[in-house]
Amino acid sequence: MTVLDIQISVEADDWSSEEELLAFSTKVLEATVSYLKDEEQQPFPAMPVELSLVFTDDAAIKEINAEWRNKDKATNVLSFPAFPLEPGGMPGPMLGDIVIAHETVMREALDLEKSFEDHLTHLLVHGCLHLFGYDHMETEEAEEMEGLETRILATLGLSDPYAGQDPL
User: Fold this and answer.
1) Binding-site positions
2) Which of 7, 44, 79, 161 could be joined to 127 by an S-S link, Cβ 3.0–4.6 Å?
3) What are 48-106's pLDDT values in tens digits?
4) Are strands 49-56 and 4-10 parallel, antiparallel or unpaired?
C-alpha cells in the first residue's frame, strides 16, 4: 500500500529527470515512513498523505532561506511542515514541502567523500523527519533525530553519517 502521494517539481537543470527523482525519492521516503510506523509506532492515516519535493539550485534556496529563516545563504535542504506536528503525532492529509539545492548537495557530498546519491538519501530522510516534528536545535533533540536518521539509513544500506561527530 502506498502511504505517500509525492509531488515533484524540478526547477534546476543539474537534477536527474522527474521520473528518476520520483522513483529514487519514493524509495527513500517510503522507507522512512515505514520505519517510523513499524519501529517507532508512528500513527499514520489510512489514506496516503501528500508530500511535495522541490529540486532546485543554490540561488533559489538562498532566496527561500532568506525569506523564511532570515538566513541569507544557500543551504542543502529546507523542510516546511504543512501543520505543526510533534514527534509521534498523527500527520494530516498534507505533510509539507522539502526543498533541496543541487549545488550544495554536490559540494557537501564531495567534501564528505560520499556519493551524491548517498548524501541526497540522507537529506531526504532528514527533511522528512522534520515534517514529522523532529528537530535538532537542542542536543537532546539532535541525538534523537540523528539516531533515527542513522537507523533509517541503515535500512537503506547506508552507514552512520554522524560517526565521530557531536550531535548537531
Assistant:
1) 126, 130, 136
2) 79
3) 999 999 999 999 999 999 999 999 999 999 999 999 999 999 999 999 999 999 999 99
4) parallel
For the annotated binding site for Zn(2+), the residues are 126, 130, 136
Q: Are 104 and 74 a contacting pair, CB within 8 Å? A: yes
Query: What distance in Å separates the CA atoms of residue 45 and residue 35, rounded to the nearest whole number?
Result: 15
Q: What is the CB neighbour count within 10 angstroms for residue 129?
A: 22
Q: What is the DSSP string of 130-154?
A: HHTT---SSHHHHHHHHHHHHHHHH
Question: Cβ distance 28 to 62 under 8 Å?
Answer: no
